[in-house]
């Protein structure tokens, strides 16, 4: 049963997500240990505080609090003037002190929302709270024993809890992608699910369509990609519907997603809040959040993805598809912005369309071919602006421009300098000469010409390729195509 067929049944899926994001602070949440432990040996970024030694005193990381409030503001949350940290009983071996410092009844924020588009409809998904806690250590399981790496323990971990407003696994995936965009734009998270810096627990239940009361929910863990979130929820929804149909009970429990098998499996019975025995953290003072500081943080918010998308469409008249691709990858969008800043042209919309086309096609091609991240910038924005200037002035053809771009990407040279050093000749503009070459190519490729005349219109591209080869890329493809059509169709070329 697919998600689509499930949606057509008499059951409704109800989903809420708990998203955990490590924050990009230099030090841990309650101590001065470095969070730059990705390539470090196990248990080398540790101290008595994050190792849970008796008698140590935690100190609150102010930057982590600021990042959490900025995220909450971006998610339209209200920020109380008073907040506090709590102790949460935690009987698992990945926190050595036996409890986790988290937040319970008075978090840093509450009552926000995130808007997403699904099937052409705008959906407002409620945000219950955005709060702050410490991450756990990492357990490495082997056959018969487990090892513990404390480097991650104490890393600032922001939790974003949604209302149970999501109604399909696809919506859950879209929510996660939208949330990741916002976190990356804010600069508070790397957003890398595959590395564990962004993690998601999903709560899901099913109920007869039209029923207000929620069904028994299960929680799913161990999902390390957007696609895994969607697949795990699809499986679990189908499993729960099958249980209801066969009059079997659904147990409230935590289940793990097994990617290789495409199923969820039981892990433990689901805990209730009172099982954690929360109480105010005695070693940390309450937080008093001044309105002035909160408003100062609000002024530091960057332009967020939705606002950037709307501006690109209004200011540059770009297509919705191009705008979505440019804004999904923030470094790529930043690069496009810098190309526009380096472009001193009167027709800004035409330049924006050209810049968008080249960034999304040729620049993206080179980044992928060389396995380079979009924020590495081997090709400077001014170099691409220079290339577009050469095209606007018809100093080079599109074919030549691609060759020049490859050279600029590899060497870092400016396209204008490459054109001179390579001795690239200007495009052939002599009409008589081009017509002579067109006639010669048609004569030498009679079968292709006849295929075109017989209705195989794509055959003209083969003739264009022959002409470009014969002219070594010096002929403009648009003019060549126009001349070819005129000759083949028997119409005047002028």
List keywords for this structure.
494 residues, Arc Repressor Mutant, subunit A, 3 domains, 3-stranded antiparallel sheet, 16 helices
List the helices and strands and how they pair.
Elements: H1 3-7, E1 11-22, H2 62-74, E2 82-83, E3 86-89, E4 99-102, E5 110-118, E6 121-134, E7 138-142, E8 145-149, E9 156-162, H3 169-186, E10 198-208, E11 218-223, H4 226-245, E12 253-258, E13 263-269, E14 279-280, E15 287-288, H5 291-299, H6 305-316, H7 320-328, H8 330-341, H9 348-369, H10 381-392, H11 398-411, H12 415-421, H13 431-444, H14 446-453, H15 460-470, H16 477-489
Parallel strand pairs: 11-12
Antiparallel strand pairs: 1-9, 1-10, 2-15, 3-4, 3-14, 5-6, 6-9, 7-8, 10-11, 12-13
Helix pairs in contact: 3-4, 6-7, 7-8, 8-9, 8-10, 10-11, 13-15, 13-16, 15-16
């Amino acid at each position: 049963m697919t998600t689509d067929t499930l949606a057509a049944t008499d059951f409704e899926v109800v989903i809420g997500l708990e998203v955990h994001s490590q924050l990009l602070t230099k030090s841990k949440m309650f101590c001065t240990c470095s969070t730059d432990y990705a390539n470090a040996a196990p248990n080398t970024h540790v101290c008595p505080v994050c190792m849970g030694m008796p008698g140590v005193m935690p100190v609150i990381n102010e930057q982590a609090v600021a990042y959490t409030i900025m995220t909450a503001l971006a998610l339209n949350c209200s920020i109380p003037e008073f907040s506090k940290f709590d102790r949460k009983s935690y009987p698992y071996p990945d926190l050595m002190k036996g409890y986790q410092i988290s937040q319970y009844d008075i978090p840093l924020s509450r009552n926000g929302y995130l808007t997403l588009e699904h099937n052409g409809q705008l959906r407002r998904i409620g945000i219950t709270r955005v709060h702050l806690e410490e991450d756990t250590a990492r357990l490495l399981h082997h056959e018969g024993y487990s090892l513990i790496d404390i480097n991650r323990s104490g890393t600032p971990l922001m939790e974003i809890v949604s209302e149970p407003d999501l109604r399909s696994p696809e919506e859950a995936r879209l929510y996660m992608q939208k949330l990741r965009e916002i976190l990356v734009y804010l600069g508070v998270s790397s957003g890398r699910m595959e590395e564990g810096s962004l993690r998601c627990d999903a709560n899901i239940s099913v109920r007869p369509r039209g029923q207000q009361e929620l069904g028994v929910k299960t929680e799913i863990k161990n999902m390390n990609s957007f696609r895994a979130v969607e697949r795990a929820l699809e499986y679990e929804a189908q499993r729960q519907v099958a249980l209801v149909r066969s009059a079997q009970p659904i147990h409230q429990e935590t289940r793990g997603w097994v990617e290789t098998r495409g199923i969820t499996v039981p892990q433990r019975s689901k805990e209730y809040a009172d099982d954690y025995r929360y109480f105010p953290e005695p070693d940390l003072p309450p937080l008093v959040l001044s309105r002035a500081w909160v408003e100062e943080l609000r002024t530091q918010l960057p332009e967020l993805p939705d606002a950037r998308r709307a501006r690109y469409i209004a200011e540059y008249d770009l297509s919705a598809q191009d705008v979505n691709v440019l804004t999904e990858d923030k470094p790529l969008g930043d690069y496009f912005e810098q190309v526009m800043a380096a472009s001193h042209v009167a027709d800004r919309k035409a330049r924006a369309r050209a810049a968008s086309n080249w960034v999304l096609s040729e620049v993206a091609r080179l980044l992928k071919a060389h396995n380079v991240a979009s924020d590495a910038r081997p090709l400077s924005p001014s170099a691409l602006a220079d290339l577009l200037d050469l095209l606007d002035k018809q100093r080079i053809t599109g074919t030549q421009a691609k060759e020049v771009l490859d050279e600029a990407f590899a060497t870092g040279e400016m396209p204008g300098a490459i054109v001179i050093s390579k001795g690239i000749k200007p495009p052939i503009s002599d009409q008589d000469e081009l017509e002579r070459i067109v006639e010669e190519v048609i004569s030498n490729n009679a079968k292709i010409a006849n295929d075109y005349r017989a209705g195989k219109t794509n055959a003209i591209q083969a003739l264009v390729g022959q002409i470009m080869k014969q002219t070594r890329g010096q002929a403009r493809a648009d003019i060549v195509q126009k001349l070819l059509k005129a000759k083949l169709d028997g119409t005047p070329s002028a």
